[in-house]
Design goal:
The protein has about 300 residues and is mainly α. It has a domain at about 35-75 and about 115-290. Helix content is about 75%, strand content about 0%. The chain has eleven helices and no strands. It has helices at about 5-30, 30-40, 45-70, 80-95, 100-110, 125-145, 155-175, 190-220, 225-240, 245-255, 260-305. Helix 3 crosses helix 11 (about 260-305), helix 6 packs antiparallel against helix 7 and helix 8 packs across helix 9 (about 225-240). The longest helix has about 45 residues, at about 260-305. The protein is globular, with a radius of gyration of 21 Å.
């Protein structure tokens, strides 16, 4: 293994460890202040943040369902897709890398013969991620007006790069559309589904903005669009690291550490992380209840038709 590769691995391991160590140090040294800040927030802040994130999860699932429709999964029911994604969100809360295999396995389990093959949905996340990069570029452009750390050209370069890759994937799909592996890119070739996907991504980005705004307002943090977008963009960047529930506090401190107290920013980040976990549990519970009720509605008439 080359020296640069070893250094890259060392840095990728030290960054998340360092961020978690920072959050742990703050909790250990300023635990009472953090607890006071956390408990001083009105309960409606946490409830509203949870509700906003539940809507985010629903829209994320609808984005995936849109991609599946274009990949040959038109006959898969909404209940099966939401059940698969609920399991994926639960697995991702524990281990981010487990979300995708869990989603695919559960879709194959609940979708049955109507589910596309694994190879057909292998690239299904690519269009969603690239539309998210476009949304993140807009957030970065707005957030850059709050601080000078983000060069003015960077968001537009990010947006241009994402759009260029989307165009390249569209051409790639046309070239290899007869191959099963390319099916996950089919959404880019169908204008109605492509536009629907773009609107859904914009929708769950707006819900994430609303959740962040609610929490920041609850802690009397700056709530102008520039600061909220800066925090949300930072969460997306920090979320790439394996921090788990430490993503919220680390992101708030990184984005607002210079304009507010570290204790307040950490407490706000803890509320964001708590809202995320509670929303995943609420979404999974709601989907489980929906699936259970739906199964009973289907099964009961069949039993009654058997007669005495």
């Amino acid at each position: 293994m080359s020296r640069s590769r070893r250094l890259s691995r060392l840095v990728s391991a030290l960054v998340p460890v360092g961020a978690l160590a920072m959050v742990g140090y703050l909790i250990a040294t300023k635990g009472s202040a953090l607890a006071a800040a956390f408990t001083a927030v009105p309960p409606w802040v946490l409830l509203a943040a949870v509700a906003a994130h539940v809507l985010t999860l629903v829209l994320r699932t609808e984005a995936w369902r849109t991609v599946l429709q274009a990949a040959g999964g038109e006959r898969i029911g909404s209940r099966a897709v939401h059940t698969a994604n609920a399991g994926a969100f639960l697995a991702g809360t524990l281990q981010g890398q487990a979300a995708m295999p869990t989603r695919v396995a559960l879709l194959r389990r609940f979708g049955g013969a109507d589910s596309p093959a694994v190879s057909q949905i292998a690239l299904g996340d690519a269009p969603i991620v690239l539309f998210e990069v476009c949304a993140a570029a807009v957030l970065a452009a707005i957030g850059s007006t709050a601080v000078g750390m983000i060069p003015g050209w960077a968001p537009w370069a990010m947006l241009g790069g994402a759009l260029a890759i989307l165009a390249a994937l569209r051409l790639l799909y046309e070239r290899f559309r007869q191959r099963r592996l390319a099916a996950g890119l089919g959404v880019l070739a169908r204008p109605a589904l492509r536009n629907r996907l773009a609107l859904i991504v914009a929708g769950f980005t707006a819900m994430a903005f609303l959740r962040t705004l609610i929490v920041m307002a609850g802690f009397d943090l700056p709530t102008d669009p520039a600061h909220v977008c800066l925090v949300l963009f930072t969460m997306g960047a920090v979320g790439l690291l394996p921090l788990g529930v430490g993503t919220g506090p680390a992101s708030m401190v990184a984005a607002l550490g210079g304009s507010t107290t570290i204790v307040t920013a950490t407490a706000a980040g803890m509320v964001v992380s708590a809202a995320t976990v509670l929303a995943v549990l609420a979404y999974a519970g709601g989907v489980w209840a929906w699936r259970t009720v739906g199964s009973r509605v289907v099964v009961l008439p069949a039993r009654e038709s058997l007669g005495p």
